[in-house]
Amino acid sequence: MITSIVVPCYGEADGLPILHARLAAMSETVETDMEFVFVDDGSTDDTPAVLRKLAESDARVKYIALSRNFGKEAAMLAGLRAARGDAVVIMDADLQHPPELVPRLLEEHRAGADQVVARRDRTNDSPLRRTLSRFYFRAVNSVVDVRLVDGEGDFRLLSRRALDALLSLTEYNRFSKGLFAWIGFPVAVVPFQSGVREHGRSSWSLESLVNYGVDGILSFNSKPLRSAIHAGVLLVLGSVAYLVWQIVNAVTAGVETPGYLTSIAAIIGLGGAQMILLGIIGEYVGRIFLESKRRPHFIVKESNLDPPRQPR
Q1: SS3 69
Q2: I need a surface site. Which of 137, 175, 227, 261 has the fewest CB within 10 A?
Q3: For 30-50, what is each residue's pLDDT tens digit?
Q4: Phi/psi of residue 31, nearest 5 degrees
Q5: What is residue 304's predicted lDDT score, i.e. its pLDDT?
Q6: Helix axes 47-57, 16-27, angle to 10 degrees
Q7: Widest pairwise Cα distance in the chain
Q8: What local confidence, expressed as pLDDT, does residue 38 receive?
C-alpha cells in the first residue's frame, strides 16, 4: 500500500524543512510506503529551491512547480492528479494541519471509510472569524445542494476510488469542499485542534475569502437565479399595492403633489434590485464563459516526475 501526502505550497520556504521533518518522523510510525507530493503554486520566495533540495535528500519527495499562481484549488488538483497512492491525504504546508494526525486517518480508512475528514475546532481562530464562519455555513447550507460542515476543510484522506471519482469532475470553477461532499462514499470524522502558523502570513485576504465564499454559494445550486424571479414578483406586487394605495388616498383625501423623497427612494430601490439581480445572472454567465474555454486548470513549469495529466 502506498500513501500519498499532497501539500499545496505558496510562500512556504521557511516552513517546508520543518514540515518535511515531521512528515518523515510520522512515516516511521505507519506500516505503509509514503510519497510526499509538494505543489508550488507560483511562489515568489525560495519555495521551489527548497523543494529541489528536499527532493535531492529524500527520494519520497515529489514536487511540481506551476508556471504562475493559479490558486490553491488548481495546486491541489495538480497534486491529486500526480499522486500514485492507494490512499491520498491533503494537507496545508503551514503546519496548521498536524502531520501526526495522519496515522489516525489511516486507521479510519482501514476500517472502511473512503473519506476521512479532519474536523478542526477553530480554537486558534479569532472570535470574529469564528462568528463569520458559523454565519457563512448556515447561509450556504440553506441554499446549496450538498451539506457543508463548519471546521471540515481540505485536510482529509481519500481512498483511490474516491479520488478517481473526484478527478472525473473536470469543471473549471472548482469548490473542493462541495466536491468532496458531492462524490459521497462512506465518511469518517477525526476531530483535531488546529496548529498555529509558525512562519509567514496567510495568503488569504478578506477579499479572497469573500470570493471563495461566493464560489461556494454559486457552484452547487441555481437558487440565486430563481430568487431573481421571486424578487421580481415581490416588486410587481409591491408596486401594485402602492398604486392601489395612491388611488384610494386620492379618492378619500384628494390629489396631493407626489413627494420628491418617495420618487427618489423608489428609483434607488428598484435600480439597486436590478443591479443585484443582474450581478447574480452575470456570475453564472461568467462561469459558463470560463467553462466553455476548456483551458487547463494549471500549467507545469518544473517537476521531478512526469507532468500531471491535463484534461483533453
Answers
A1: coil
A2: 261
A3: 888 889 999 998 888 888 888
A4: -95, 70
A5: 83
A6: 30
A7: 91
A8: 93
Write out the three cell numbers for 162.
474516491
* Structure confidence at residue 311 (pLDDT): 42
**Grid cell 466553455 in the structure block, residue:** 292
The single-letter code of the amino acid at 303 is: S
pLDDT digit string, tens, across residues 124-149 = 666 766 676 677 667 666 656 666 66
- Check if the beta carbon of residue 297 is closer than 8 Å to that of residue 176: no
Report how far Cα 166 is from the mean position of its chain's Cα atoms: 14
Give the residue from 293, 9, 75 showing the smallest Cα distance to 171. Answer: 293
Q: What's the rounded Cα separation, in Å, for the pair 153 and 98? A: 14
C-alpha of 39 from chain center: 17
Match 434590485 to its residue by C-alpha cell: 273
In three-state secondary structure terms, 86 is: coil
List the grid coordinates of 259.
413627494
Distance between CA atoms of residues 129 and 142, nearest Å? 20
Residue 187's DSSP bridge partners are: 115
Contacts of 218 (CB under 8 A, 6+ apart): 224, 283, 284, 287
Residue type, 242: Y
The three cell numbers of residue 204 are 488569504
Hey, what's the cell of 195?
496548529
- Contact status, residue 159 vs residue 86, Cβ threshold 8 Å: yes
Give the pLDDT mean for 61-69.
Answer: 88
If we measure between CA atoms, which residue out of 32, 23, 14 comes closest to residue 199?
Answer: 14
pTM, rounded to two decimals: 0.66
